[in-house]
Write a structure and sequence with these properties.
- Keywords: ATP-binding, Chaperone, Cytoplasm, Nucleotide-binding, Stress response.
- It is found in: Cytoplasm.
- This is Chaperone protein HtpG.
- It comes from Parendozoicomonas callyspongiae.
- Homodimer.
- The protein is an alpha+beta fold and about 650 residues long.
- The chain has four domains: about 210 residues, Heat Shock Protein 90 (2-Layer Sandwich), CATH 3.30.565; about 130 residues, Ribosomal Protein S5, domain 2 (2-Layer Sandwich), CATH 3.30.230; about 90 residues, 3-Layer(aba) Sandwich (Rossmann fold); about 110 residues, Four Helix Bundle (Hemerythrin (Met), subunit A), CATH 1.20.120.
- The chain is built from 23 helices and 22 strands.
- The strands form four sheets. A nine-stranded mixed sheet has the order 1-6-5-4-7-3-2-8-9. A five-stranded mixed sheet has the order 10-11-14-12-13, with helices on both faces. A five-stranded mixed sheet has the order 15-17-16-19-18.
- Helix 10 crosses helix 11.
- The longest helix has 24 residues.
- The radius of gyration is 33 Å and the shape is elongated.
- It starts with 7 loop residues before the first strand and ends with a helix.
- The mean pLDDT is about 90.
- It binds adenosine-5'-triphosphate.
- The site of adenosine-5'-triphosphate (ATP) has 17 residues, from helix 2 and helix 3.
- Adenosine-5'-triphosphate (ATP) binds next to helix 2 and helix 3.
């Protein structure tokens, strides 16, 4: 480690400068949040020390009672938040208070719109942290000494482009942050004001937060305020409840406290949609407090995103982001788990092997699914919000968690041909409840986009018969459907794949009539097949179409078009398969084709129909130029030139 004695001036990382600017301009309407953030950091710093002290008790030095002290000086216009937690050394300070190490920061900053309301919500989700000090302060001084080290450091900045850093002798371990208040925020240098903010935002902090005792002002007989005794040693008192929130009983915790606690552990200041707080006693003993956030984080689809629960063992903080207690498809859940059965020395490696962890994981998974099921049942509007934010991730569930497949399937929501809107609101139970009497299967179609699914020619026969079809167009949908085979005893059927089997929905007469049409069209089918033999697997008469001349069908065992595109985009080899081309002999264009004696024109027209069928399902043409030329030629002929 290098030891520097002189004062040095360093520049903030560009992202910090941007964030500072945004923060000061977007969050000025809630200046008091700085205190919540600094107390939250102080509490984290104490948790870290307590954990490290499990392995090395000397870190506690002669100061084992961890606490946060908040003081103010009206004359000097300062507020100071001091902790005796883990502290920081010079490298830590530069790393933590000069840069933002969070992944996705640049991407996050790109999403800023300039609209203060939206931006402040986004910043809230990103976590405002230490830099929120600059909302109220025009200078911030951080004095800190790391546990177990000798040298202290002073960091100071005016929140513009740079900060200074110098060595100091600091007797006490931990961090003390002094805010030099801006003139318009001098009201924070007031004991009652600070107390009320602490009670509002930080009551759930399990560490004692101390402030100097403050008597109500007393007056003499003439009504003059009595001066306090000079040189009286300050007396400190605890101003918060100072009990870990999850250890308190549910009935005595207010919703507001649950919400504040959520903000503290998740660094997300959008209210959670729901939470579930439980104590389990028996073979395993643990308490869990799980939250469903109100908004998806910006990196939800990055499977490397930070996820997992805050893990405590017997009230001692062990680690953030313990991923082992919930499956990947519930990676959006935030919360705390406090176990009595794990060892205080537990490490990530051991966690992965501990059989108790596996049982807790399955119980917590069930708890989350139950919480969502209840939400879906009792609070449809909130569930709609949940689905909009996290539905895509939940759709990964059936593939990852076979055991809970049916439960997850119950939670899925879809767009359907009957509703015709993009918002996914129809459950499988709704679908089954509306099923036609003779209908045995759950029908779905998957396409590249919602509109492609909605206007797919494959739906025609279903529309005619009044049968609802699920419209799937999310990237994850084909993956989902390749793991979901049936629900409530009803099989799923992709209507764009293989032979269409409508079961009892088709009468004997219908079938006979179809066979008749097939027989009559044998020559036509053969002629088209000769033209398209390179492009298609086979040609056949359709049973799906009523209004369109032709469509493409994927072979029963072949990979769907959407999955194919995902795999191709990921650079994976995909098997070379050809679609089946189905024609509707009753359509005037096909009748016209059948009557075409000129083989060249027959071939041109067949190709156009084939390309159109591909376009209608949202596909891309292999040779769009050739298609346009053919079509133009045809248009010219039609217009008689
Ligand atoms: N009182 C403190 N004692 C020790 N380290 C601290 C203290 N305050 C901040 N830090 C360090 O500085 C880092 C940055 O703090 P900051 O509040 O900006 O972000 P954060 O707490 O990591 O996340 P978020 O931005 O979501 O709040 C922390 O991760 C921590 O390592």
């Amino acid at each position: 480690m290098t030891t520097e004695t002189k004062k040095e001036t360093l520049g903030f990382q560009t992202e910090v400068k941007q964030l500072l600017h945004l923060m000061i301009h977007s969050l000025y309407s809630h200046p008091e949040i700085f205190l919540r953030e600094l107390v939250s950091n102080a509490s984290d710093a104490s948790d870290k020390l307590r954990y490290q002290a499990l392995h090395d008790a000397t870190l506690l030095e002669s100061d084992p009672n961890l606490e946060i002290r908040i003081s103010f000086d009206k004359d000097a216009k300062t507020v100071t938040i001091a902790d005796n937690g883990i502290g920081m050394n010079r490298e830590d300070v530069i790393e933590n208070l000069g840069t933002i190490a969070k992944s996705g920061t640049a991407e996050f900053l790109k999403n800023m719109t300039g609209d203060q309301k939206k931006d402040s919500q986004l910043i809230g989700q990103f976590g405002v942290g230490f830099y929120s000090s600059f909302i109220v302060a025009d200078k911030v001084t951080v004095e800190t000494r790391k546990a177990g080290e000798k040298e202290g450091v002073i960091w100071e900045s005016e929140g513009t482009g740079e900060f200074t850093i110098e060595e100091t002798d600091k007797a006490s371990r931990g961090t003390s942050i002094t805010l030099h208040l801006k003139d318009e925020h001098l009201d924070f240098a007031d004991g009652w004001q600070l107390r009320s903010i602490i009670r509002k935002y930080s009551d759930h902090i399990s560490l004692p937060i101390l402030m100097e005792k403050q008597d109500m002002p007393s007056y003499d007989e003439e009504g003059n305020e009595k001066k306090e005794e000079e040189n009286k040693a300050p007396e400190w008192e605890t101003v918060n409840t100072a009990k870990a929130l999850w250890t308190r009983s549910r009935s005595e915790i207010k919703d507001e406290e649950y919400k504040e606690f959520y903000g503290h552990i998740s660094h997300d200041h959008t209210d959670p949609l729901k939470w579930s707080h439980n104590r389990v006693e028996g073979k395993l003993e643990y308490t869990s407090l799980l939250y469903v956030p109100g908004k998806a984080p910006f990196d939800l689809y990055n499977r490397e995103m930070d996820r997992g629960l805050k893990l405590y063992v017997q009230r001692v903080f062990i680690m953030d982001k313990a991923e082992e207690f919930l499956p990947m498809y519930l990676r959006f859940i935030k919360g705390v788990l406090d176990s009595n059965d794990l060892s205080l020395n537990i490490s990530r490696e051991i966690l992965q092997k501990d059989p108790n962890v596996e049982s807790m994981k399955s119980a917590l998974t069930k708890r989350v699914l139950d919480m969502l099921t209840k939400m879906a049942k009792n609070d449809e509007e909130t569930y709609k919000t949940f689905w909009k934010e996290f539905g895509q991730v939940l759709k990964e569930g059936p593939a990852e968690d076979m055991g809970n497949k049916e439960k997850i399937a119950k939670l899925l929501r879809f767009s359907t041909s009957l509703e015709g809107k993009e918002e996914q609101t129809v459950s499988l139970d709704d679908y089954i409840g509306r099923m036609n009497e003779d209908q045995e299967k759950i029908y779905y179609i998957s396409a590249e986009s919602f509109n492609a699914a909605k206007s797919s020619p494959h739906l025609e026969v279903f529309r005619k018969k009044g049968i609802e079809v699920l419209l799937l167009s999310d990237r994850v949908d084909e993956w989902l459907m390749s793991h979901l085979f049936e629900y409530d005893g009803k099989k799923f059927e992709d209507i764009g794949r293989g032979d269409l089997d409508l079961g009892k929905l088709e009468s004997e007469e219908d079938k006979k009539a179809q066979e008749e049409v097939e027989k009559q069209s044998e020559d036509l089918v053969k002629r088209i097949q000769d033209v398209l033999k390179e492009e298609v697997e086979s040609v056949r008469v359709t049973h799906r179409l009523t209004d369109s001349p032709a469509c493409l069908v994927v072979g029963a065992q072949d990979m769907g078009a959407q999955m194919r595109r995902i795999m191709e985009a990921a650079g994976q080899a995909v098997p070379d398969t050809k679609p089946i081309f189905e024609v509707n002999p009753e359509h005037p264009l096909i009748v016209r084709l059948d009557n075409e004696a000129d083989e060249d024109r027959f071939a041109e027209l067949s190709r156009i129909l084939m390309d159109q069928a591909s376009l209608a399902e949202g596909g891309q043409l292999d040779d769009p130029g050739a298609y346009v030329q053919r079509l133009n030629k045809l248009l010219l002929e039609l217009s008689g030139s």
